[in-house]
Amino acid sequence: MNDSFESWTDAQLTVLARRDDAAFEALVRRHAPRVHAVAASMVGSGSADDVVQEVFLSVHKNLRNFRGDALFTTWLHRIALNACYKVLGAKETKATVPLDDILEPSAPHDPVRAGEAADLREKLSRALAQLPTDQREAVVLRELSGLEYAEIAEVLGVELGTVKSRINRGRTALKALLLRRGVTP
User: Where is the RNA polymerase sigma-70 region domain (predicted)?
Assistant: First the structure.
């Protein structure tokens, strides 16, 4: 990232990015990994790159209309979820949720550990895919994208208590699903 933009806030960058491509590129570099994590968890890694591209094309196109009433990350993640739903279509799906790009094996040179990590990622992917959409969205936005509860509430358009409840129920369900697959905390 351009050193001159590294210390800039998102709010500062969004204003400048309306007329400066380098500032927009700084926003993309800063947020693309989290958008990719959300997309991969919702639509699978095969479609995640397309979703990320669609998200940032939409951000670029609509940045002039962004008033800053919400945090940039909130607006960005709402666009990301909308792009995921566009890919998924109108139907509710239980997509496989590959986490290959999110969790790397701790020792890729050790075939046993790499195999165990791949097995764990697969189990986690299957369990995450089994969550109801509302719980999966909340858990993904919190655990993979690192959003605060208030930001998640704004992205999803629900009350803070609802977000907390969804995350709690999602975590509880994930734990139960993983325990059934032989994964212990």
Answer: 27-86
